[in-house]
Design goal:
Helix content is 0%, strand content 38%. The chain is mainly β and 107 residues long. The protein has one domain. It has a three-stranded antiparallel sheet with strand order 2-1-8, with no helix packed on it. It has a three-stranded antiparallel sheet with strand order 3-4-7, with no helix packed on it. The radius of gyration is 19 Å and the shape is elongated. The mean pLDDT is 85.
């Protein structure tokens, strides 16, 4: 699972016809995930409204370019959480090069 209840999350990896939703930030309901089409999914606190940029299919429904659609939940695989990594997290960029000492820094 990528997300936890109540997370803020990026929408990623949707079908190209749903491209207008790509990169949006959503908030998940503070409740356990539900199952949609056999996969864990999260209820959203606010629905996502988009206009399709291509033809597509969602479950048994077909959608066509220019149609307005919305959804109240998304499968976990399409979400990446935005959260505080915690006190034990490290910044990997600091591991790429040695950190200069105070004596090496010039003004």
């Amino acid at each position: 699972m990528n997300c936890k209840p109540g997370d803020l999350a990026w929408i990623v990896g949707l079908h190209p016809s749903l491209g207008e939703a790509e990169g949006r930030i959503v908030q998940l309901v503070d409740a356990p995930p539900v199952v949609y089409e056999g996969e864990p999914s999260w209820q959203l606190t606010k629905r996502v409204d988009i206009t399709l940029v291509g033809n597509g299919r969602l479950g048994d429904q077909r959608f066509y370019i220019g149609e307005s659609v919305w959804f109240y939940q998304l499968q976990d695989k399409y979400l990446r959480p935005i959260r505080d990594p915690g006190d034990d997290a490290s910044d990997e960029t600091l591991e790429w090069l040695p950190v200069p000492s105070r004596d090496e820094v010039t003004a």
